[in-house]
Automatic annotation (TrEMBL):
Protein name in the entry: ATP-dependent DNA helicase RecG
Family: Belongs to the helicase family. RecG subfamily.
Transmembrane region(s): none
Top EC class, one word: isomerase
EC number of this enzyme: 5.6.2.4
Lineage, opening ranks: Bacteria, Bacillati, Bacillota, Bacilli, Bacillales
This protein's UniProt keywords: ATP-binding, DNA damage, DNA recombination, DNA repair, DNA-binding, Helicase, Hydrolase, Isomerase, Nucleotide-binding
Reactions catalysed: Couples ATP hydrolysis with the unwinding of duplex DNA by translocating in the 3'-5' direction; ATP + H2O = ADP + phosphate + H(+)
Protein source organism: Bacillus smithii 7_3_47FAA
Domain Helicase C-terminal residue range list: 493-653
GO BP terms: DNA recombination; DNA repair
Cross-referenced CDD domains: DEXHc_RecG, RecG_wedge_OBF, SF2_C_RecG
Database matches in Pfam families: DEAD (PF00270), Helicase_C (PF00271), RecG_dom3_C (PF19833), RecG_wedge (PF17191)
Helicase ATP-binding domain residues: 313-474
Amino acid sequence: MLPLPKVSLPFTIIDSHSRRGVCGGSPVGDVRNKGGRHRKITVNNLLSRDVGVLKGIGKETAHSLAEMNIYSIKDLLEYFPYRYEDYRLRDLADVPHEERVTVEGKVHSDPSVMYYGRKKSRLTFKLLVDRYLVTAVFFNQPFLKKKIKLNDTITVTGKWDRHRQTITVQHYHLGPYSYRSEFEPVYSLKGNITSNMLKKFIATALNEYGDYIRENLPTAFLENYKLPGRREAIRAIHFPKNAQELKQARRRFVYEEFLYFQLKIQALRKFEREHSKGQEQHYDVKKLREFIQHLPFPLTNAQKRVINEICADLKSPYRMNRLLQGDVGSGKTVVAAVCLYATITAGNQGALMVPTEILAEQHTSSLRELFEPFDVTVELLSSSVKGKKRKQVLEQLENGDIDILVGTHALIQEDVNFKQLGTVITDEQHRFGVEQRRVLREKGENPDVLFMTATPIPRTLAITAFGEMDVSVIDEMPKGRKAIETYWAKHDMFERVLAFMEKELRRNKQAYVICPLIEESEKLDVQNAIDIHAQLTHYFHNRYNIGLMHGRLSSEEKDQVMNAFSRNEIHVLVSTTVVEVGVNVPNATIMVIYDADRFGLAQLHQLRGRVGRGNEQSYCILIADPKTEVGKERMKIMTETNNGFVLSEKDLELRGPGDLFGKKQSGLPDFKVADVVHDYRALETARKDAAELIQSDAFWTTEEYEPLCTYLQESGVLSGEKLD
Ligand code: ADP
Ligand code: MG
């Protein structure tokens, strides 16, 4: 179990719930952590007894158990299997090739043994299973020849080879099916602990202490959702009698885990709202309307809606902590501009923080353009702003001569001081570390903070990882956009791709060619930017100019290349993913992505978003020879949808949350039983329930909710004692 990553949550959360799973609820788990400070005399303390009190657990065994994070009886009872061996009887007709199966059959031929190598043997006989005659194979157990007789009934478990109609037996039982359980739990083990030992300890613990397991979910929920009680569920998760029992126990713990997780997030959100005094920014509505009327285009309804949501936050006494999601090209920049202007009309300064220098420069110039008629000073602060210029910018910032500061990480350095910072906006927020976001938030007097992201966050993740934030969504594209056509080509079709590019180039359009790495790497068989650049220069010699862009160029060099590309002096830009976010060159209509299968879907979608920014039909060509089915599926999905939300849901399904944001950034605890993708319905239910509980007075006063309240109290969320 990983501790809850300190991601996106403004509190440091240390609790036994996320670390050791679903133990929450009763104070037991925390007693040891707090050195007995809160020790209460309740029956629960029996469960907090050291595992050493159980028969058969000596010093050495206790040591091994400790390695598995099992210290108390409670820890032991809540050490859940990570999977189960399925010993259910099945009809062979339904069993796929190479799957494990358990069948009962009649011995239909005398066993014969064949010896080979040294001490190796193979025993086979025909087995009649219902109406199928199959071959049973046992390796290295020649003695069974004497035990297995013609016409005996035998139960075997093993791998089913559908083509050869053979079962390679791993377990057997001489006689009819009588396995103790249809499901055998499988635990992860450490030290000298064996599976049988652990099962015995758990069985003993259940016997001797099972009666003290206390319910921690309100009865109404158990009844509503038809969930088994905690004691019953703990027994069933270790020793399920059948599939139904296991399923119900699992359902219960999925819900329990989600409810506890959501309670904490909702409590955090409530606490944040009530305790984070922000500034009331009284912006000038008339001026704001004027600014919006001056924009080169009418705002979409979605843009208007989110601007209203953000402005309401600015005016309120709470500090804004809002996530703005909008697909690539949905027009987030102008929303940011309107909000920054609102801040300025309230007499404050604004900051816009972006992940790359290219983006910082681009935003600076587009904001300057927008603000030109409104007497707003926009300045850039990036690592390329040095020496005298930097000093000057910093002075003007402190004087209040600069209204809006745009920049990269340079914005949050210690010597950067604003006169009166009102609003901070970060673009592509998932690229910033939490620490950087926190430092930025702490500049000035509790500035309102807006995090913008084009990575569509699947609902399931949004309500978990970003559950403590308010969320606004731009779910509408500006009118007149043509959908980008996406094609998937194999590497050997590159010639045709080049011909297609040339056709567009002849129409005076431009192209991006993206490669995963800068230089050749022997480990990864990927085309590199430098190589491709050389190839294309050779192919298009004299006809078109090919530029090269990658992270190892200095920022001046990057500027030069980018500016030349914007001016259409470079026609084809070969680049690594540094152009992934935000870059805006509307004349580019082709995006070719090399080794596209090496990128996540969300990232491919970002890259694709670099084209289709004007009114012309644009194209995205993915070059990839994926080897796996999942890889092929991913390429296919890209060609089928332009909807970033659909893609991110799909990516989550195919690759899991870790891959979407990077494990650390997903902000998700490692759930013991629950799975955010497959159990998303339970997650939504738990979120709704948690939100209602936190808001209701009864929650804090009714005895029934006591385990939940205690859990929240001890996690420190309520008192803010874990505020960092
Ligand atoms: P993103 O959300 O990806 O940051 P941008 O803010 O870069 O998108 O906007 C993409 C393009 O759409 C820009 O050229 C911008 O000027 C244009 N745009 C934004 N809003 C509108 C609108 N309401 N109508 C027409 N064009 C718009
Ligand atoms: Mg943008």
